[in-house]
Design brief:
The chain has helices at about 5-15, 15-45, 50-70, 75-80, 85-125, 135-170, 175-205, 210-235, 240-265, 270-275, 280-289. It has one domain (about 15-289). By secondary structure, it is an all-alpha fold. One of its GO terms (cellular component) is membrane. This is PQ loop repeat protein. It is a multi-pass membrane protein.
Length: about 290
């Protein structure tokens, strides 16, 4: 006897090839967005320029984003339909969850890089192998804060996982409300996340280990992905997509800073630039390292 396919699952079986290809292209685009950021941190061997609060709030926002998309009733339907739909329809239905998870994983790579290179830079300063980019005091402080950020992020992720599991098991009717609350937290963390980064970038007068190319790629991605999620979950699932429009706008602010700094530096002698920053130029850093 053939298994009866629920109505919601029949809709997922009606595959939209263009939407599937767009979703896959967005994941590739996201990887391309993060490659310049990873490369910049590795090439400078420093986390200087990345705000500790930016890393912390971004990590917490990512945890809430995964919790949000997993707790949405529409996601439960997508996962459940994998028992009746074919493999391709199952993967297509789960692309929204996969996109969010992949994006957060890419940011957590930045988190681990931040912790690792902060520690490495501090150790190199202590042993005299090389001088830190931002000075010993700030480097040692960043190394200490990096481990604190990692522990807070992991503890927060465990807490969200436990609460979500309890709600799904004991109070499934509250799933939408919990998802909306997590969505609000995502938006709040994502908005506040960029405030310390904007302040840090403006204070330093340069981007440091923050990649301008990565930001330029991330702005259109954030908005395109927001539109993709809007189409997938609708206005009722606003908490899953509104954050991406906000993040894109905040990233534009950082990009505008980069343009301002480039114009400023273009009209200054190199000696004056080095005196103000008290550190070598970006080109000389890369050659030295």
């Amino acid at each position: 006897m053939a298994r009866e396919i629920p109505e919601d699952c029949r809709k997922l079986n009606e595959l939209s090839i263009p939407q599937f290809l767009i979703s896959c292209a967005l994941m590739v685009w996201l990887l391309l967005c993060y490659l310049p950021q990873w490369h910049r941190i590795v090439s400078r061997r420093s986390a200087e320029g990345l705000s500790t609060l930016y890393i912390l709030l971004g990590s917490l926002s990512g945890v809430c984003a995964i919790g949000n998309i997993m707790m949405l009733p529409s996601s439960a339907i997508d996962i459940g339909c994998c028992r009746t739909n074919n493999t391709f329809a199952c993967i297509s239905g789960l692309l929204g969850i996969l996109q969010v998870t992949f994006g957060i994983s890419c940011f957590w790579v930045v988190l681990f890089m931040y912790v690792y290179y902060s520690e490495q830079e501090a150790e190199a300063e202590i042993r005299g192998r090389r001088h830190s980019v931002s000075g010993p005091d700030e480097t040692f402080q960043r190394a200490r804060q990096g481990w604190i950020v990692l522990m807070i992020a992991c503890g927060f992720a465990l807490g969200i996982l436990l609460v979500s599991a309890l709600i799904l098991h004991w109070f499934p009717s509250a799933s939408q409300a919990w998802a909306n609350l997590l969505g609000v937290c995502v938006a709040a963390f994502a908005c506040v996340q960029w405030i310390p980064q904007v302040a840090t970038t403006w204070r330093l007068g340069h981007l440091g280990s923050l990649s301008a190319l990565g930001l330029c790629l991330q702005v259109p991605y954030a908005w395109a992905f927001g539109i993709s999620m809007l189409v997938r979950v609708g206005f009722a699932g606003w908490s899953a997509w509104v954050v991406y429009f906000i993040v894109g706008a905040m990233q534009l602010v950082i990009i505008s800073f980069a343009i301002i700094f480039a114009i400023r530096d273009k009209h200054k002698p190199k000696e004056e630039q080095n005196d103000e920053t008290r550190q070598p130029t970006e080109t000389s850093r890369l050659l030295e390292y």
